[in-house]
Structure formats: structure tokens, C-alpha cells
Amino acid sequence: MDFKLLILLIPAFFVGYVYYRLRLQKQKKYIQSFRFNSLIAKKIKEKYPHLSDDDIALVFNALRDYFTLCHMAKRKMVAMPSQVVDLAWHEFILVTRSYQEFCKKAFGQFLHHSPSETMPSPVSAQESIKRAWRLACAQQAINPSRPVRLPLLFAIDSRLNIEDGFHYSLDCKRNTSTQLDGNKSYIDYCAAHIACASGCAGISGDVSSDGSGLFSGSADSSCGGGCGGD
Fold first, then answer.
1. What are the domain boundaries of the chain?
2. Which of 35, 41, 103, 143 has its CA 20 to 30 A from that of 86?
């Protein structure tokens, strides 16, 4: 390459990189400040009537966190670790014009919701939940292999007593045991081992070999869904 041409291209590359970084920062800021339609809150309350307005606000914060993880992952799949946040995402998608505009400004493209059942293989689902765990920990300054607390997306279903949610524990000895909360029965999943274990949300399960489901085990161990760029 001609030396003079190289000298001219270096500033162009630098300007392009700066523009790219500024665009990413603008997108992340847009995601974190986005205000969701009140109809979504109403739908969440219909499904989980015990949730307060403050609880719904926490769900929306967790959904913003999830969208930020998707933005960080670019076009790689990111599993949804929470049932209640997944519901909020579903309801947001149904507000089609708002969701399309959000995706355009936040990602520059439409963000698809891909249920775990449609993922190409169990390995894809495994990598998807691992990626969610690593990114969520990085987002909240948590050591992914030695966590002392759970990221919001992995803690919210337990915090809000979502009976059909995914419940994670830092204590791996409780991984397969049933936890009782009043009349509710929960299965705790070991959060600390997600980054290296073989399961999806229910990492105590094994990959199904009979084709009946993504994972087998003592509990439903599929994730709520995942995001993908294409």
C-alpha cells in the first residue's frame, strides 16, 4: 500500500472508530433511560397480581438490564434468566410500533425473541445462559465464578416470589433441593456453576437424549427465551 495513502487512511479509521464508540454509548444510554408503556405493567399485574408498583418498576429495570446484555453481546444469543422479565418482554413486543422503534434506536436492527425450544441444539442453549451469566456479572461487577450476590436478572424471580419463575442460589449444596416459601415450592439452581455447567436455567439437569425436551431433570430447566440479531 502506498505510504501516503496509508497516512490518509489512519485518520479516517480513527474518526470511524470514535463515531462507532459514541453510537454504542448513545444506544446504551437510550436503553437505560427508556420508559415502557403502562399497558405492559397492567399485563404483568394481571399475571402476577401480588406485585406492587415498585415491583413492576424493578421488572422494568431488569428488562433494561437484559436489553443492555443483548447490546453487549451484539448478535450472539443471550438467554432470558427470568420468567417475569420474559413476560414483560413478550408484552413489549406486542406493542409493535413502540417495540420496532425501540429496537431501531437501541440496536440498529430488530431484536427477535427466540424461545429456548427453537434453539439449534442443547449446546446453543447452554452457551446462551452462560453468556447471560457472564455479561450480567460483568455489568454489575460480580465475579462470575465466585459470586457473593446475584445479578438482578438472576435474582428477581426469587425476590418477587414468582412461583413459576427461575430461582437461583449461591449455595450449590441446595441445587437440587426443594425450597419452601409458605405454600410455594421452589427449585434452587446453582448460579455459581452456570459458567461451567452443562444445563440451561436448571443446571442440575442433563441434556435430554430422547428428544422429548431440551433438558431433563427434576424441574423444567429450559430458559425463558433468548435474543438474537438475525
1. 8-228
2. 143
Rounded Cα distance between 118 and 148, Å, is: 33
Closest alpha carbon to 198 in 125, 131, 117: 125
Q: What is the pLDDT along the chain (230 residues), one digit of tens a residue?
A: 576 666 666 666 655 556 556 778 899 999 999 999 999 999 999 999 999 999 999 999 999 999 999 999 988 889 999 999 999 999 999 999 999 999 999 999 999 887 655 555 556 678 888 999 999 999 999 998 888 999 999 999 999 999 999 988 887 665 444 444 555 555 567 776 675 543 333 332 222 222 222 222 223 334 456 655 44
SS (H, E, C) the chain: CCHHHHHHHHHHHHHHHHHHHHHHHHHHHHHHHCCCCHHHHHHHHHHCCCCCHHHHHHHHHHHHHHHHHHHHHCCCCEECCCHHHHHHHHHHHHCHHHHHHHHHHHHCCCCEEECHHHCCCHHHHHHHHHHHHHHHHHHCCCCCCCCCCCCHHHHHHHHCCCCCCCEEECCHHHCCCEEEECCEEEEEEEHHHCCCCCCCCCCCCEECCCCCCCEECCCCCCCCCEEECC
Name the DSSP letter for residue 118.
G
Q: Give residue for cell 444506544.
A: 27
Going by C-alpha positions, the residue among 177, 171, 167, 178 that lies closest to residue 202 is: 167
pTM: 0.74
- The grid coordinates listed for 8 are 490518509
